[in-house]
Design brief:
The chain is an alpha/beta fold. 44% of the residues lie in helices and 15% in strands. The protein has an eight-stranded parallel β-barrel with strand order 1-2-3-4-5-6-7-8, surrounded by eight helices. Strand 5, helix 6 and strand 6 form a beta-alpha-beta unit. Helix 1 runs parallel beside helix 2, helix 1 packs antiparallel against helix 10 and helix 8 packs across helix 9.
Length: 274
């Protein structure tokens, strides 16, 4: 198993988690969740998407001005308006997501791989011109050929990205496939891999643990597993498994993380969702 450094869990409750049907956090609720995550020892927080509008941008500024120890960062498409909105909020770390599968590039966007790479190059350059660090997301990676992911990783490294996200966007992986994939990719990938799981088959936690045991150095999670469609890997579940296997991130408080799940569940429940 590769050595896992402190802070390898990336919480995306306020970004991917908010894509759960009917779930919308207020600015103060987002601030409260961010502070709770920080107190639980989570050192990477994907705070949201500033280009969504003024209310979202105001929430992002609250989080950035809260004096957190964690790195709060924004999610962006590879386009000028997203990068500009994140920079205007004051973000110094940006995640920039691009499609990597043929299904998304050619059938969903009606574009070419060359176009995607040009968009990414321009977006990363713009972010860096404002002094920002960048991670890159490979959307729909589990339906792309592994070589396509590695090609994107190589470009991302040349552009100066610090890590790349392997997204199982439609949640089709199983733990055995995940283990084989991450072992293959980690041995060849030029950047640290972040694994991002969806729970369509109820395997997001299992896939996340398998990825971390097989070469992925980072993993995305959400409180209670809240997220788009069937959700994501649950923060408290992943931490509980890691604690049992003695690879829990240094400084992480499992009891505090469980309370965040209760906090997020209570907010969702008040709006009629549970």
């Amino acid at each position: 198993m590769p050595e896992l450094k402190p802070g390898f869990l990336i919480d995306t409750t306020m970004r991917d988690g908010e894509q759960a049907a009917g779930v919308v956090f207020s600015a103060m609720e987002k601030l409260g969740i961010a502070i709770a995550l920080d107190n639980a020892g989570i050192t990477w927080i994907e705070a949201g998407t500033p280009v969504m509008g003024q209310e979202e941008a105001e929430a992002m500024r609250l989080i950035l001005n809260a004096g957190l120890k964690a790195v709060a960062f924004s999610w962006n498409r590879a386009c000028h308006q997203d990068i500009a909105a994140s920079v205007a909020c004051g973000f110094e770390f940006l995640h920039i997501s691009v499609p990597v599968s043929d299904l998304h590039i050619y059938h969903k966007l009606k574009r070419s791989r060359k176009w995607v790479y040009e968009q990414l190059t321009n977006a990363v350059s713009l972010a860096q011109s404002h002094g920002c660090r960048v991670s890159v997301g490979a959307e729909d990676a589990s339906r792309a050929h592994p070589d396509q992911f590695l090609e994107l990783a190589e470009l991302s490294e040349r552009l100066g990205a610090v890590r790349i996200r392997y997204a199982d966007t439609v949640g089709l992986l199983d733990p055995f496939t995940t283990r084989n994939l991450m072992s293959h990719l980690a041995a060849r990938c030029s950047l640290p891999i972040e694994f991002h799981a969806h729970n369509d088959f109820g395997l997001a936690t299992a896939n996340t643990v398998a990825a971390l045991q097989s070469g992925a150095l980072f993993a995305s999670v959400t409180a209670t597993g809240i997220g788009e469609r069937a959700g994501n890997a649950a923060l408290e579940e992943v931490l509980a498994v890691l604690e049992e296997t003695d690879i829990i991130p240094e400084g992480t408080n499992l009891a505090a993380a469980k309370k965040i799940g209760c906090q997020v569940a209570a907010i969702s429940s008040r709006r009629g969702f549970s």
